[in-house]
């Protein structure tokens, strides 16, 4: 019997120079220091699609289509760390949010854009609908189809968000 191997490609990011070198007074980088904003990331969440292809019709709600909302935020130094969310779109497998968020960033080199989709559930814990995490330093301005992953990190076949990234 032959074993099949799945190749996993891992992108690596070089540490920023300020983490590798001492400052002019032999100081090391302090992530809690008050720093000026270097750039602002504007993120627009337009819409999502693909859940009806990757999940059975009753996965999120046995009686109606799902009520999806998106959480978007930054993981990074304490001054940059924040989470925001869209309003839930009721009863729709293809939710359209058209919501824009701004994230002022003091250390964009260490910032990750966190994206999560959940299905709002009034009576129980909200259901997980997908996630991804993108290094801000790797984002390019423009409209993008962003694939989402399961809680185990497995990429869904069809689930994507249509988003726009801008640096101002």
UniProtKB/TrEMBL annotation:
Enzyme class: hydrolase
GO CC term (a single one): plasma membrane
Keywords, ordered alphabetically: Cell membrane, Hydrolase, Lipid degradation, Lipid metabolism, Membrane, Transducer
Taxon lineage: Eukaryota, Viridiplantae, Streptophyta, Embryophyta, Tracheophyta
Originating organism: Actinidia rufa
The EC number(s) this enzyme carries: 3.1.4.11
PROSITE patterns reported for this sequence: C2
Record-given protein name: phosphoinositide phospholipase C
A molecular function GO annotation: phosphatidylinositol-4,5-bisphosphate phospholipase C activity
Cofactors: Ca(2+)
InterPro entries: C2_dom (IPR000008), C2_domain_sf (IPR035892), PI-PLC_fam (IPR001192)
């Amino acid at each position: 019997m032959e074993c099949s191997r799945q190749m996993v490609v891992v992108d690596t990011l070089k540490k920023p120079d300020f983490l590798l070198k001492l400052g002019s007074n032999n100081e090391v980088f302090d992530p809690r220091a008050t720093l000026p904003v270097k750039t602002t990331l504007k993120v627009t969440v337009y819409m999502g699609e693909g859940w009806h292809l990757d999940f059975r019709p009753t996965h999120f709600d046995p009686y109606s289509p799902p009520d999806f909302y998106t959480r978007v935020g930054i993981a990074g130094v304490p001054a940059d760390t924040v989470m925001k969310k869209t309003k839930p779109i009721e009863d729709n497998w293809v939710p359209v949010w058209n919501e824009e968020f701004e994230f002022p960033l003091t250390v964009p080199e260490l910032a990750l854009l966190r994206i999560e989709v959940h299905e709002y559930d009034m009576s129980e814990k909200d259901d997980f609908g997908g996630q991804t995490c993108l290094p801000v330093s790797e984002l390019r301005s423009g409209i993008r189809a962003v694939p989402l992953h399961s809680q185990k990190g497995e990429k869904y076949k069809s689930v994507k968000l249509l988003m726009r990234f801008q640096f101002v």
